[in-house]
Amino acid sequence: MKKIIMAAVAFLMIAGTMQAQENMFGKDDKVVNLGIGLLSGFYSGSFYSSKTPPISISFEQGIKDGVLDVGSIGVGGYLGYTSAKWEYLGFGWKVSNFIIGARGSFHYPLVDKLDTYAGVLLGYNVVTSKETGNLLGGNYSGSSSGVIFSGYVGGRYYFTDNIAAMVELGTGIAYFNIGVAFKF
């Protein structure tokens, strides 16, 4: 019991001396993320060869400050693209995914110069495919599309007031995105 009380007192002393971190994202801020995806769920089986790596661009504008004391809310848009070729014995498919969507994020400052956030993406995934080779005796093409909904967490570490390294984990065009962010 004595150890618990001592730990609680130490925690309260440390917490009492901590200051809130500066929020790196707030109302009226505008940020553009440029990312390249790693660990994409698209085209990851046998006989796939990457044609275009997963790339994304997103825009976000701060719309509300003071959420949970120092947090903020941002909304914006998202575009993502990737394509690949599947081939076996001279026959195959060229397939591409194009995602367009809207995002909403909650930002909360945890560390100086680091904008940490979590959010949701609601979008539309346009899938197109075209046959290569002539194994089946025809030239087939097709498309498929559908609504996507996903969550993500991320962070932007600001080297200057306007330039940051960006990392996001979640779904969109890839499970893991790295890149650069520009605030203006």
Quick overview:
With 184 residues, the protein is mainly β. It has one helix spanning 2-17; strands spanning 30-38, 48-67, 71-88, 91-107, 114-132, 141-158, 163-170, 176-183.
Structure report:
- There is one protein chain.
- The protein is built from 1 helix and 8 strands.
- It has 184 residues and is mostly beta strands.
- The protein has a single domain, classed as Porin (Beta Barrel).
- It has an 8-stranded antiparallel barrel.
- The longest helix is centred in the N-terminal third of the chain and has 16 residues, at 2-17.
- It starts with a helix and ends with a strand.
Shape: elongated
Q: What is Rg? A: 22 Å
What's the number of domains? Answer: 1
Strand order, main sheet: write it out. 1-2-3-4-5-6-7-8
Please name the CATH topology.
Porin
Mind describing the biggest β-sheet? 8 strands, antiparallel, barrel
- β-strand number: 8
Which percent range fits the helix content?
Answer: under 10%
Helical segment tally?
1
**Helices and strands: which structural class?**
mainly beta
CATH class: Mainly Beta
Mean pLDDT, all residues = 84
Report the β-strand fraction as a percent range.
Answer: over 45%
Low-confidence stretches: 4-19
Q: Quote the distance from N terminus to C terminus.
A: 53 Å
N-to-C SSE string, H for helix and E for strand: HEEEEEEEE
Q: What is the CATH architecture descriptor? A: Beta Barrel
